[in-house]
Amino acid sequence: MIKNKVKVFRVGNNWTQADLASQLNISRQAVISIEKYKYLPSLELAFKIAKVFNSQIEEVFYEEEE
Amino acid sequence: MIKNKVKVFRVGNNWTQADLASQLNISRQAVISIEKYKYLPSLELAFKIAKVFNSQIEEVFYEEEE
DNA sequence: TATCAATGTAACACCTACTTTACTAAATGT
DNA sequence: ACATTTAGTAAAGTAGGTGTTACATTGATA
Question: Would you call B47 and A63 a contact, using CB atoms and an 8 Å cutoff?
């Protein structure tokens, strides 16, 4: 399973879900869905997310069993 | 635009598209479609691709203007 | 030239990422 | 208590990724 640290990064930057959504040009629901693992973002969106957090994709998304 | 070096890595390993496809458990057409930019792979598939090439996602996929 | 392996194209179907809208709920402050 | 902000759920729709099947093309080699 591919997990992520989106919420960790987001809260670390003091951003609300709406803040992050507008920076990514996606809906707030998309942010919620990613944080709550309702679905995996596309590769393109994963790139954008890593970018706004000044990180590599692997720092934000990572594989973990279970 | 998100480009990739899948073909470079694949040929570097002396793998045919069919070889790579079977290692990734996807169809040969999916490999073709990614190499020819018919579509972007999902994040999960991008992870698998980076893995079979013993690389980071950013080494295989990268953003480039135009 | 005939054959075979590797690569490519096209069409169809399916699933899922993502949007939009609307509503609920929890937390915080006044 | 009330209002506001933030987070969460749910349903319907659109777009695009992915699989499948079938056929075409190129290149190498016998």
Answer: yes
**Model confidence, pTM:** 0.91
pLDDT tens-digit profile, chain A (66 residues): 899 999 999 999 999 999 999 999 999 999 999 999 999 999 999 999 999 999 999 999 999 875
Nucleotide minimizing C1' to CA distance for residue A15: D6
- Distance between CA atoms of A54 and B28, rounded to whole angstroms? 35
Class of domain A11-56: mainly alpha
CATH class of B2-63: mainly alpha
